[in-house]
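User: Small ask, check this?
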Amino acid sequence: MTFGQAIANGFKNYVTWKGRATRAEYWWWTLFIFIVQIPFSIIFNVSSQAGLEAALAAGDQAAYLAALFGPAYWLLVLVSLVFLLPSLAVTIRRLHDIDRSGGWFWIIFVPVAGSIVLLVFALLPSSEGKNRFDS
C-alpha cells in the first residue's frame, strides 16, 4: 500500500468498522495525520505565545484563557475532529488485522500502559490467511 492509497482508504472507509487495515495502511495514515497537524500546531503556538506571556506577566487569568482559546486553538480542534472518526476506524481495522477485537481500542484509556499496548499491537504483523474479521 502506498501513501496515497492509505489516505484514500482512510477517507473512503472513514466509518467502516469491519474489515482489516494492513500495517502499512495504518502507519501511512498516521504519518499523514502527523504531517497535516504540524502546521496547525505551529500556527497555534506562534499566535498564542505573545498573549500567553503577557497574561502570565500581568497575572491576568481572563487574558490568559482568551489567548489560549483563541481562533488558532479552535482551528486546531476542528482539524483534529475532522480526523477523529477516520483515525478511530483505521485503528479498529488494524486491530482486526492482527485478529483482535476493536474493543481493544479502549485500552488507550489505561494510563501509559494502554498506549504502549496499542503501539505494540500496531507494530505486530498481520495475521496469516483469513481471520474472523475478513469482509
